[in-house]
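HUMAN: Would you supply a protein with fold tokens?

ASSISTANT:
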Amino acid sequence: LDLSNCSLHSVPPELAEATAAIVLDLTENPLTTLPNGSFLGFTHLQLLAVPLVLECPGGSDAWQEVTVDGSSRQCQGQKNPCNGSTELASPCPENSACAPDGPGLIQCLCDSPFHGYKCLRKGTFPVLLFGGILGTATVSLSLLLWGTQRRKVKTP
């Protein structure tokens, strides 16, 4: 994806739709910062070229090789932050697994059959119970209101 020399002052929001990009060139743009999360979901990105004033997203530790070439900085070979020995403790809660989510970014995916906040709930959502209670409450309240408000209706 070649976005070089496009007079970009900030990262366009439409860039979030290009998560399948393998090569991305942002050089020769008057960019001053790369907001956190600009490359969220860019797990396939292997080469990123940014203006020299910018650092590689995720820092140099998120890339296998960072080189300076003229007026651009090239970030090559995105590292998997989940299998590194830099952190002793896993950043993900129990019953979940770490997965890469872009340069220097991770996501925690719940192991089956766990779900919910911090993967603490086991099993599936009780759809029938929830639907039954909601339906019964709705019908009961509707009948009550119809019965109590019916006397206020004037017939012609």
